[in-house]
Design goal:
By secondary structure, the chain is of the alpha/beta class. It is built from 12 helices and 12 strands. The chain has 2 domains: 140 residues, Rossmann fold; 121 residues, Rossmann fold (3-Layer(aba) Sandwich).
Length: 279
């Protein structure tokens, strides 16, 4: 704590914290005007009970739907409307290293306190939830949520412990085809869910050909509903080249959203195993 200042005739305590990127920031605690630049963290903030404090979100922050319809939008996760942010007068902005544009964040942090997450694993996500709870004054709510998530994922341990886990190629984009490989949160979620990423030896989100996929003989091709909106209509284009693999459209939020959506993910993953076994 570094002293007090007056904002809108209210007394705040200035607090210093270090975010998940190792950056120190000073902000008024508790923050009363929060802007969230990441969909999964926006949902988390609302679930922690910060409905009144969240004054701005991105156009992609679609959960909760009621708040998405009514809350001011500050652009997207990459293309941010700086004038809109200025008009909202935030005392804290919350973003993410991978999802937000570095240059935009650097411009924002010259004017506002900006807290950044850096998430590649389940442990990173749980740490983020705890830290967000601390910096928003919702520590107990965050601890309870993290405990529920940990308990829910512990029930998936029998899938992870199998010697022969289904192998997966996880598609996130089309034209060109791109997959989630090693070093990504999606890769870690596949492991947590009891699958094995056939491309974990590659890094991040490489472009790929269907012939490369076929050569590795994955049991399952998962077509994610985001960021590219794959749907059942896209399955035929994979069928001929990858006819020996089971092709499934999957809920991308359950693999890539690292906030309170993890509770839904823990319930969703066993259903994927059941679906695969029935095919």
């Amino acid at each position: 704590m570094l002293g007090k200042r007056s904002i809108n005739n209210s007394s705040f305590v200035n607090r210093a914290v270090t975010d998940q990127m190792g950056r120190e920031l000073i902000f008024p605690f508790p923050p009363k005007r929060i802007i969230s630049l990441v969909p999964s963290q926006t949902e988390l903030l609302f679930d922690l009970g910060l409905n009144e404090e969240i004054v701005g979100i991105t156009k992609f922050c679609v959960h909760p739907i009621k708040q998405w319809k009514t809350r001011p939008k500050v652009g997207g996760t990459k293309k941010i409307h700086f004038d809109k942010i200025a008009s909202l007068q935030p005392d804290l902005i919350i973003g993410n290293k991978e999802e937000n544009d570095r240059e935009a964040i650097e411009l924002l942090e010259k004017k506002y306190p900006v807290w950044m997450s850096d998430i590649n694993t389940m442990n990173d996500a749980l740490d983020m939830i705890g830290q967000v709870g601390e910096l928003t004054g919702k520590k107990e709510n965050a601890q309870a949520l993290a405990s529920k998530i940990t308990s829910a994922f512990s029930r998936l341990s029998h899938f992870k412990e199998k010697k022969e886990r289904p192998t997966v190629a996880f598609f996130i984009w089309r034209k060109p085809y791109m997959i989630a490989a090693g070093g990504t949160f999606i890769n870690n979620m596949l492991e947590e869910a009891g699958f094995r990423n056939i491309f974990s030896d590659k890094t991040r989100y490489p472009e790929i050909t269907l012939r490369e996929v076929t050569n590795r003989k994955p049991d399952i091709l998962m077509l994610s509903s985001e960021p590219y909106p794959f749907s059942e209509k896209h399955i035929p284009e994979f069928n001929e080249e990858c006819r020996k693999s089971t092709i499934m459209v999957v809920n991308g939020e359950c693999f890539s959203w690292y906030g309170s959506r993890l509770l839904e993910a823990a319930n969703y993953f066993p259903k994927l195993h059941t679906s695969f076994q029935k095919r």
